[in-house]
User: Which sequence fits this backbone?
């Protein structure tokens, strides 16, 4: 069966997600400023409002995988799929883990040593750098994908109930982790994100219908996204200021609703930009296409910027330093990726 048409809007959604990733990492230090200061409040809100980004990337993976393979999946494709996907992600993951394992030692301690056993543990957990846990999650979904798509294709019930199943699995893992027994490396386990992956899978199967639905009800999905996001960030602010005691489950629920509304808003927003803003769309498409490289590179640039610039004693200087970190993280990483691509093309 022929491949389905490419979805150009996906790169725009990737651009949204990678901008949010860099925003989280560039403002993380600023959230530790004295509570009550205007700068801390603004950066705290920006940081927490961007927490949809990893769920959005996982949703994208679910969409792309099921959109690409659902109509043409067949027996014997598992090996080809695993070989193609895992080579594409495992080699960069191992190399980047090795780089950050050595780079962070040098930048923060001034010395470098290599312990193979410790490095293997870092690889398994995704802890060679603070951003690499995402790679471990994606590898797990890649390993499970042949089983998941076979189940979905064979069972109408599973196919129709994908989203509820994903939510139940994620909620069950959350309950076990918080109420029964802590799951090791819980943040790096696929069960922490099954709701978004299943949502993405459902969208990938029924993409045209859901894209049309998201456009028809864009005001509703946008309102839900804003309300859920404001509720999540508002509860965090109340907790930070000690104004309310809120159970963790409420944070998780608000974040889940927020993260499931963001993709629906992002689809219709991206489609509208492609139709109405061609110049902006070209820039965002290029940014989205480079998002994987930006994701891998930007923590090194942020670390260099933080270590090589002097301490900012005045709050306005710290604000400028944080804003500059964001642009260095996005634009600096993007420039490096484009230079690498040009060198690779020139040597081919």
Assistant:
């Amino acid at each position: 069966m022929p491949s389905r048409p490419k979805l150009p809007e996906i790169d725009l959604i990737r651009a949204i997600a990678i901008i949010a990733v860099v925003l989280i990492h560039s403002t993380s230090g600023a959230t530790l400023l004295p509570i009550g200061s205007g700068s801390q409040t603004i950066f705290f809100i920006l940081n927490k409002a961007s927490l949809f980004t990893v769920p959005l990337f996982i949703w994208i993976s679910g969409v792309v995988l099921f959109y690409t393979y659902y109509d043409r999946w067949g027996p014997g494709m598992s090996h080809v799929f695993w070989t193609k996907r895992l080579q594409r992600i495992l080699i960069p993951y191992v190399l980047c883990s090795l780089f950050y394992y050595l780079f962070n030692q040098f930048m923060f301690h001034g010395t470098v040593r290599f312990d193979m056993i410790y490095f293997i543990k870092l690889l398994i957990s995704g802890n060679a750098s603070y951003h690499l846990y995402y790679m471990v999650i994606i590898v797990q979904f890649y390993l499970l994908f042949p089983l998941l798509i076979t189940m979905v294709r064979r069972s109408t019930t599973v196919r129709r109930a994908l989203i509820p199943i994903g939510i139940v699995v994620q909620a069950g893992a959350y309950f076990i982790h918080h109420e029964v027994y802590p799951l090791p490396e819980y943040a790096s386990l696929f069960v922490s994100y099954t709701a978004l992956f299943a949502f993405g899978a459902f969208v990938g199967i029924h993409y045209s219908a859901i894209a049309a639905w998201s456009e028809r009800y864009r005001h509703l999905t946008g309102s839900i996204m804003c309300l859920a996001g404001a509720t999540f960030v508002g509860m965090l602010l109340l907790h930070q200021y000690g104004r309310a005691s809120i159970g963790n489950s409420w944070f998780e629920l608000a974040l889940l609703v927020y993260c499931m509304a963001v993709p629906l808003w992002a689809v219709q927003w991206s489609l509208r930009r492609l139709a109405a803003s061609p110049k902006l769309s070209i820039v965002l498409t290029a940014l989205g296409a480079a998002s994987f490289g930006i994701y891998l590179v930007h923590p090194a640039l942020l670390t260099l910027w933080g270590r090589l610039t002097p301490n900012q004693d005045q709050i306005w200087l710290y604000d400028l330093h944080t804003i500059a970190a964001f642009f260095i993280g996005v634009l600096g990483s993007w420039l490096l990726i484009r230079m690498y691509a040009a060198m690779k093309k020139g040597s081919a």
